[in-house]
Amino acid sequence: MAGRTPRRVPALNTSPAPRPTINLEEWEAKAPLGDAEIRSVGLIKAAAEKLALPPIGGDDSPSRPSTPKSKLLIGPGSRPGTPNPSRFGPVPTHALHPKLPVQTPQQFYDWFAVIDKSVAHSQEAHFRAHVAVVADHLSTCDYLLERIGEVEKEVDQMLEQWTSVEESGKSLKDACERLLEERDHLLNTTDEIGARLEYFQELEHATRMLNHPGESLVLQADFLYMVERVDICIDYLKSHRHFREAEVYLLRFQQCMTRAMTLIKMFFVGSLRALSADISKRLFEKDVSSTAQMHLLYTRFRSVAPQLGPLLRELERRAVSHPDELMALLSECHTAYLSTRKSLLINRLMEEIKGLDPTHTELVELTRAGCSYLKQLCLDEYNTFREFFSTGEDQLYQYLENICDYLYDDLRPRILHEPRLTALCEVCTVLQALMVLDDPDVGNDDNELNLDLDGEPKSSGWHGLHISQLLEMVLQDAQTRLVFKAQSVIQTDIRYYVPKAKDLAYPEKLIEARKPASATDMKEKEIVSQIFRTPSLEKQDTWYPTLQKTVWVLSQLHDYVKPAIFEDIAQEALTLCQQSLVGAVEIIKVKNPPTSVLDAHLFLARHLLIMKEVTNNLDFLQRDYDPSVHLAGMTDALSSMLSRTSALLPGSLFSAFTVPTAEGAIGSLKQAIDQALRQACADAITECASPVCTPLREWVDHMNEIPSTQRPSQADAARSLRDAFVGACGGALRANVMRLSLYLESDRTVGVLVGHVEERIVDEYSAYRNMARSVDVVEGVMDDQSVRIMVRDVREKGVEQTDSSGS
């Protein structure tokens, strides 16, 4: 068996008996292998079957030696036959062949030991081959490990070298970047120095151009560009005064700018003189038509604007930027232009004013024609001025005011001495109409160049010619004269008015007024109604003259004076008008007819209602009509004041209506009118009811003085008084209702007062009825409802009779 050492047999002293030979099969049978040995052998065989690695040395010889084949094992028996050299020729020598024939058992045992060793060696050959393969593998692995170590060492060296190269490259990159930054900094510094030097180098170019002789320098294309560059340099040096010699260069640049603007001014003034001389020469020629004059004064004058306008715009821009140095030059240009225009226009203006004939033309027509001409003239001058300049508005308006003074010198004295209030109102109307028609589009020309300090376009702030500024002085004169004349009319025709007999002919004037009115009277009444925004102010010919004059004066002043002044005048006029009405009432009371007292009270109530209507519609403070504060006529005013039944009581009319406290003088005036109106209404109610109520009240008072035991004797008096009451209602009461309808005209208005008369009559009759029943007078005594029906019937008949008589 493989791996076992053959057991050596000890030598015997006797001759050894011959041992039987044994073959491999018998050996295998007698020495079986265990499971462990069999698995080991199988593993070894499987490992041996695998392809061996090539030898390191490159030897192509197999790694496992072949198993030696012994001829001794070939025969059928396990023991080889004894060679017979004679039979087979020379016996080949073999390492296992005994060198000498075996003669002794010991020799045999020795030889057998060699054979056994050879067999064992032969059986262990694949193990040795496997060991050799494993040894080769180990040597190969050791070689690979060695090479891997060398490679790792090389890689470490390469990594160290790469890191060194990387660090060196980074340092180089940083150095290059620093060099690039230094280069860029130097280039930027060079560019900045060059850019800054350009501002200083511009001085030489500007100086060389300004030293160029000739007036046409300003017309060269490079001139305005040079001016722009100088202006930029001045602004730059002002913001960088810390530069070396900046102040010196700044002063020299400013001198260049002043020289350039002076050249523009000189060229402009020279062009104006030449143009003015040419136009003046042609204007003084004979037979020059008006159209030709307009062409010379405006079209010919404006023809040089495209050439001079850009230069003047530059001067205006620089004057705004440098007012201390250049504003005087711009002012000289304005003065030269305006003086030139004035010298050209003065003769033609004087001829036009003479053509208006101020001494003989009517004031309103003179105002309309003269101011219209001046407005057109000022508008033309304004547009022409704007062709050249975008500044100098104040100087222009002073020039236009001087032109207007030529007409104002003739117009103002006429206005200040005008005695007619209507003419003054028409003058104000004409002036206000012209002032309202200001042209908002003038001065917004598309070719206007108006720039700010940075050269960007900006609005000029001009919104057209404000003709109101030129006409304001004349309007103020007209308004002042209008106020003075109105105050004079108020004093003469209202305060100190002496009434005539026909002025106090009431109710005759009212009866006459019920006749159809003429077309002229209707038109005048319509105008007043439109001014005071109410249809109730009609039949003005029935008004007392002071009230007519008051309403007329206020209607004339309403749209032509300031609200505060108008309020003062209105307060004065209405106060004096109320005083004149009170005086007229006293005159009417002393007339002979017994109804004159009622006429006086109704006269005052009628006119106070009209005054209340006027004060409520004039709207002193805001001038805008507000329907919410407008009282819809005399009826509503009367209803609001006499709507409470407590007003029927004597002396209670003042407490029946609480007047709200108003602020200011106008508020006090309204309160005074309301109080006087309430008192007039109370007196009228009392006077209307007096013919019916007085006998009843006197009899009741008389009966209260008689003892109750003697009262039955008054039954006849009570019956006769009842009959007199019915007769008074049909006679005196009807006449009074007719007078109420005549004075107040509206059925609703009459109904308000008659309602209070009715309440008073019912109260007085109720006291009479109670007293009559106490003396046993029952037959024929009416209740309250019957009395009301009778009074209302009387009222309806009285109103119908009044209407029929008027028609």
- Poorly predicted residue ranges: 1-14, 56-83, 85-89, 439-461, 527-536, 620-634, 644-663
Number of discrete helical segments? 25
What is the general shape?
A: elongated
Task: Determine the structural class based on helices, strands and strand pairing.
Answer: mainly alpha
Distance between the termini: 176 Å
Radius of gyration: 71 Å
Number of E-type strands: 0
Helix content: over 70%
Query: What is the ordering of alpha helices and beta strands?
Result: HHHHHHHHHHHHHHHHHHHHHHHHH
**Arithmetic mean pLDDT:** 76
β-strand percent reads under 5%
* Largest sheet geometry: none
Keywords: Golgi apparatus, Membrane, Protein transport, Transport
Region (Disordered): 1-23, 53-97
Protein name: Conserved oligomeric Golgi complex subunit 3
GO cellular component, one term: Golgi transport complex
Descriptive overview:
Among the domains are: 132-206; 271-476, no CATH class. It is built from 25 helices and no strands. The chain starts with 23 loop residues before the first helix and ends with a helix. The radius of gyration is 71 Å and the shape is elongated. The protein has helices spanning 24-30, 35-49, 85-88, 105-123, 125-210, 221-239, 246-283, 290-302, 305-321, 323-356, 363-388, 393-416, 421-436, 467-495, 508-513, 519-532, 545-557, 563-589, 596-618, 634-641, 653-656, 664-705, 715-744, 747-774, 784-806. Helix 22 (664-705) runs parallel beside helix 24 (747-774) and helix 24 packs antiparallel against helix 25. By secondary structure, it is an all-alpha fold.
